[in-house]
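Many introductory courses stop at the sequence. We go one step further.
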Amino acid sequence: MIQGEIYSPLFLSVNMKAFIPFILIVWSFNLYAQDTLKIAFGSCNHQNDPQFFFDSISLKKPDYWFWLGDNIYADTKDMSKMKKDYDKVSNSVSYQTFTSKIIIDGTWDDHDYGENDGGIEYPKKQESKALFADFIKPDSASGFYDHPGVYHSRNILFGEFKIKTIFLDTRSFRSPLRDGKNSGMRYLPSDSGSMLNEAQWIWLEKELKDTTVDFFIIASSIQVISAEHGYEKWENFPHERSRLLKLLSGKDAIILSGDRHIAEMSMLPYGEKQLFDITSSGLTHTWNKFSYEPNSNRVGRQFVAKNFGMLILTRENNGISVKIELWDWEHSRLLETVTVFYPQ
């Protein structure tokens, strides 16, 4: 259940009908208690822009940093060019200082995969994976090297609790998208095709059946819950989205996504639980101006700002309190925050 505050410094959306019955307002005097775990995350980082945002994220003292994709903008089949793009980030003083203090993990999206909106048709996926591995340096126990694609998992022991982060690969096996230009949308939902290949689905189901896990974090490069805009999203393959949501049903889980160059929180009620999808996108760039985008599952506002996200996990009351934050790093401004208690 929601055990903390739902707070937006500027505006709270009226689109809260499914959400209001679960709200319980409480006072919290110590948001950063001793027994805390801090996970920062973000996406959409152009390597040619200054990497100073890492200095702002460092002030939050995260234990982990999760890349959610578009970690560089390579868009190339030239692997020497892609390596130089990664090197621009890796060699920046801000990133080197940042990564010397915390653990890095993540997944990719289209621009670091190698092709804008690219999927299974991209021919350099193996070579690109090797450069991605050099950049992320996945743990050998994560399963990253056991199969094609970059999907893998990481277990985090947090006191008596076990947290599993699952990093999905929504690029290597994704079917071609259905063109929607004649409808006014870039892409339309397709009743055929795949987001993940069958091997990844089998792996995912096995990971989610791990009964020793208390809390799951699902890292998807594209949005899962938001379904109404015309760009890349899981809803472009509705049957695949339904399959994912069915696997997550009954789980204490949260989704992290990127790609959209905005920040927002989405929530989907299922049974007595609520599934959140936290979108943090636009580390170095965002939209030129605000444009409203429909999302009937949005909690609070849609933000156009250079941003990153935080999960602050606190052990309390035989469970885990998860404080979700979205930050405008340019102005040190808290955009939105929600606190959820697990198990729900």
